[in-house]
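**Protein of interest**
===
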Amino acid sequence: QFQLVESGGGLVQPGGSLRLSCVVSGFTLDYYVIGWFRQAPGKGREGVSQIDNRYGWTYYGDSVKGRFTISRDNAKKTVYLQMNNLKPEDTAVYYCAAGTSTGWDPYEYDYWGQGTQVTVSS
């Protein structure tokens, strides 16, 4: 059974950092694309970053380039999202998702975690 579990969210001040983790089970990480998405209240789900584990390729949304870094630890079956220089507009529920193709459309991803809240506020 495919399962993704996010953790690491919380309350942080502007300029601060958080590292989100996405632990997967029920499938082999090597063969899938893992995407991080976020959804703020009243807004649609926005693609933040992706890693194609088949090749190691990474992608970032324009709003997070230079601040966020996606990485993986295959042995731990975990994908991380390091978020630095956080801004109030980064406040959202962050989800990780698994799929077999890269893209920013949430419908391209088949399996989703339950989400973790990130709040950036002073």
Observations:
- The CA atoms of residues 20 and 101 lie 22 Å apart.
- The radius of gyration is 13 Å.
- The chain has a mean pLDDT of 95.
- The longest strand covers residues 18-25.
